[in-house]
Design a protein that fits this description.
Length: 247
């Protein structure tokens, strides 16, 4: 009789385990362990952004077939320079740097814009691509700032050029690109194509377009002990103070 009861209990226990496995892992967690899912921001319609900015800057832009849109709401580890083909409605994305003055911590996220001379920061707003030239960074293209937020572009020598610290391969090794002094810098292999397709007389628009995902709420332990944990003792009360670093 006891053997029969034990077998029934075992089978019931196994059935319970199977039922728990069928429940999503999130539903099995205690309420205080569950973390709210972070909603993803809606994707940016770069074609619509380009169309809007072309309408605003129509009298300043002579070539409207292609537009460059830089989405500094994304980190430098993501391709955030959108080359928009206005005829085909096609968007190609490439990595591009931001200025060191916009990211003092060098964590890959642009924190702020500046138009101030000497800020080494990125400026937001609409630019007109200008002439090609050969400078300290090789083949480059001048930019004319069209708004109060970037009208010092010429004085600050804010241009499009290439450099080793903008190579996409760096993303795999350090998780981000290097920083410029405010210029739009591309990897040296990408630069010829960018210069050719963007070309003089076109619109380059830069701003924070994607919304940075919110940071998760701080993890909070329950104030009341869980069942069966009333007599639990912390390691610090047994082995002395907690260490300051985790190995």
């Amino acid at each position: 009789m006891n053997e029969s009861i034990d077998r029934r209990a075992l089978l019931a226990g196994l059935a319970g385990v199977g039922a728990m496995a069928a429940v999503p892992a999130r539903a099995q967690m205690a309420g205080w362990l569950q973390q709210p899912a972070t909603p993803l921001p809606p994707p940016v319609d770069y074609v619509a952004v380009a169309r809007k900015q072309l309408a605003i800057q129509a009298r300043n832009i002579s070539q409207a077939d292609r537009v460059g849109v830089v989405d500094f709401g994304l980190p430098s580890s993501r391709p955030r320079f959108a080359l928009v083909d206005m005829v085909a409605g096609k968007v190609d994305l490439f990595p591009v740097t931001h200025g060191r003055g916009s990211d003092p911590q060098h964590d890959g996220w642009l924190k702020s814009f500046s138009n101030r001379v000497g800020s080494l920061a990125t400026s937001r707003g609409a630019y007109r691509t200008s002439d090609y030239y050969w400078g300290a960074n090789g083949s480059s293209m001048r930019l004319a700032g069209l708004e109060p937020d970037n009208n010092n572009a010429d004085i600050r020598a804010i241009v499009v050029h290439g450099a080793w610290y903008a190579e996409p391969s760096l993303i795999a090794t350090q998780g981000k690109l290097g920083r410029s002094e405010g210029c739009f810098v591309f990897g040296e292999e990408l630069l010829p194509m960018i210069l050719y397709k963007l070309g003089p007389g076109r619109l380059l628009f830069a701003d924070k377009l994607s919304v940075q995902p919110p940071m998760p709420a701080p993890f909070e332990l329950p104030t009341d002990p869980l069942p069966g944990m009333e007599n639990l003792r912390r390691a610090s009360t047994v082995n002395g103070p907690m260490p300051t670093t985790a190995d």
